[in-house]
Amino acid sequence: MGLARSWAAELVDQAVTVNVVAPGPTDTPMLCDPGRATTPPQLPPMGALIDPAEIAGTVAFLLGLDARNITGQALVVCAGASLG
């Protein structure tokens, strides 16, 4: 996150935004492969793994005009997993 904030500060006068998307437990083949983990993934508090398209939607939002004033931020997309 520090690097993104540094870049955001460097590029702010050029109207370039720099942000971080921090995904939580995402429904991917790697996460759900029983050969890679000894225990299945734990579901986040909202009850389901995050669909990769939802992460892509967050990235698309940050790339759009509605997010033109968001810079130097981290958006945590975790279905409540970071709540504790």
Automatic annotation (TrEMBL):
Keyword tags: Oxidoreductase
GO molecular function, one term: oxidoreductase activity, acting on the CH-OH group of donors, NAD or NADP as acceptor
One Pfam family matching this protein: adh_short_C2
InterPro entries referenced in this protein's UniProt entry, alphabetically: NAD(P)-bd_dom_sf (IPR036291), SDR_fam (IPR002347)
Record has Zinc-finger as a keyword: no
Family: Belongs to the short-chain dehydrogenases/reductases (SDR) family.
Protein name, per record: Enoyl-(Acyl carrier protein) reductase
Organism, scientific name: Lentzea flaviverrucosa
Record lineage: Bacteria, Bacillati, Actinomycetota, Actinomycetes, Pseudonocardiales
